[in-house]
Known about the structure:
The structure is a single chain. The protein is of the alpha/beta class. The chain has 3 domains: 6-27 and 215-313, 3-Layer(aba) Sandwich (Cobalt-precorrin-4 Transmethylase, domain 1); 29-111, Rossmann fold (3-Layer(aba) Sandwich), CATH 3.40.50; 114-210, 4-hydroxy-3-methylbut-2-enyl diphosphate reductase, catalytic domain (Cobalt-precorrin-4 Transmethylase, domain 1, 3-Layer(aba) Sandwich). It is 38% helix and 19% strand. The chain is built from 11 helices and 13 strands. It has helices spanning 29-44, 58-67, 74-79, 94-102, 113-129, 145-151, 186-199, 212-215, 217-225, 240-252, 286-303; strands at residues 6-12, 15-21, 48-51, 69-72, 84-87, 106-109, 135-139, 159-161, 176-180, 204-206, 230-234, 256-259, 275-280. The strands form 4 sheets. Strands 1-2-13-11-12 form a 5-stranded mixed β-sheet, with helices on both faces. The longest helix has 18 residues, at 286-303. Residues 28-31, 89, 112, 114-115, 182-183, 211, 213-214, 282 line the site of iron/sulfur cluster.
Amino acid sequence: MSITNYHRKIETSNGEISIVIDDNSGFCFGVVNAIKKVEQELNNKNELLSLGNIVHNEEEVSRLNKKGLSSINQDHFAKLKNNKILFRAHGEPPESYALAKKNNVEIIDATCPVVLKLQQRIKKAWLETKEQNTQIVIFGKKGHAEVISLVGQTNNEAIVLENENDISLINYNKPIIIFSQTTKSVEDYMLIIERIKYKSNSTFESHDTICRQVANRAPKLKVFANNFDVVVFVGGKNSSNANYLYKVCKLINSETYFISSASELNKDLYLNKKGIGICGATSTPMWLMSEVANTIEETIRTELNILGASPRDIKIQKNQTTNLKTKK
Ligand code: SF4
């Protein structure tokens, strides 16, 4: 494990306590790009509307709200005229673009390039195969903004599979082309593909369209979580990526706890531990994980009555590889 961002050590009479933030956690480039667009816009004008919350993280949404970002829902968007709207990284279906054009609403398009490419692939597959009655199938969460944007590429004809129970929605005598929402688990997708392939009596084509920003995090997080006595996972409760990555950590290290902000920390869970790891999802801002790390550090110092250097004076170690679990 490479520790580059935040590794604080506290010397105690009983040995050292380490607090480390996972440097592979935090915003993916799609979210970084969307937030950059919001901040650029708010630098020129002091208010901006976004269609839905910019990111599945209430703390980050609240930070941007204070700067002038407000989110509106589909009903409000339908009535909006002569204004400006931000489309977030999840993307939007063609109807949203048409509505904005009709109502003279300027679009600031922060659709992630990975989602945009997937939208184009689905549209191409649908256009090229609709004459053969091919079913376009999307493995994803029903009602999720990205999935709505993907289904929209097929005139809302695509079949959405949320789990194995939904595979009965498919007609196995017709051709099938399946894609995945970008944030699904690779293992779950492979399982569902195998089930469908087995049942299919016609042509079957599958595309692994899971974003590697998500898929590559799970194996790295497993290594990270295994190195600590306790793991604090920071994420939005309504983020599917956060819930998935939390489960990945919890499976490896049963002493993993999910919190959304520093105020939810329970000191009983980390006092008396020697190695404390902090990590998060693709929608978790680094500033929030730093706030959690600082709170843990300050609480330990207060509880153990350790005086001297303030938290920010502690040396940060770079490029160190180590296991910080208590030796038993
Ligand atoms: S997880 Fe991947 S597809 Fe989704 S916003 Fe981030 S980079 Fe884009």
